[in-house]
Design a protein that fits this description.
Elements: H1 4-19, H2 23-30, H3 45-52, H4 54-78, H5 82-97, H6 110-120, H7 123-140, H8 143-151, H9 154-162, H10 165-181, H11 183-191
Amino acid sequence: MLSPTVNLIILIIFGYLLGSIPWGYLICKAKGIDIRKVGSGNIGGTNVIRALGLKWGLLVSALDILKTVIPVYLAIRILPFDWQIASVAITPVLGHIFPVWLKFKGGKGIAPTLAILLLLLDWKILLIWFFFWILIFAVFQIMSFTNLLMISFLPLAFWFSFFSLAYLILGWVLFGLIWWAHRENLERIKKGIEPKFKFKKTL
């Protein structure tokens, strides 16, 4: 049996490499499209919906969630301490935003972050979080604005779920990463030119 330290190191490396798999890029490439040259240029599910339609965008989002669920679930089962689980949880997000396979230029980190919330947050807090996400998106219809606003509450959500310093720090790190990844969106939001979300009609 491997020691907790060795397990932690293996899961950190595994989490980053799995998180680095650019599903949006690969699926669009198989369809003859370079997703980096479409819409926002993002490889995530939202931009894939714009390029290929809803079903492909949902598939990409599901795969991006799965690549986070696997290492985080293993960490929960194997590792004994909150800080170790939190350390593994952040690695698929880092892989998604900075994928080694695409010269460290990847997605915005929303789908991997959603996977972390599904696995770690208290279900009552999670329901409240999703309720307000749906409400804000219905009002503004701007995906990036909705995501950024709700991500701002992550540190608070993690604190009230665990009252743990490790998970509080995880919330702040996720907040920082997601806001940094959305810096171009923020500029467009400030200028009032961030497009509202629209589904591609032809699926």
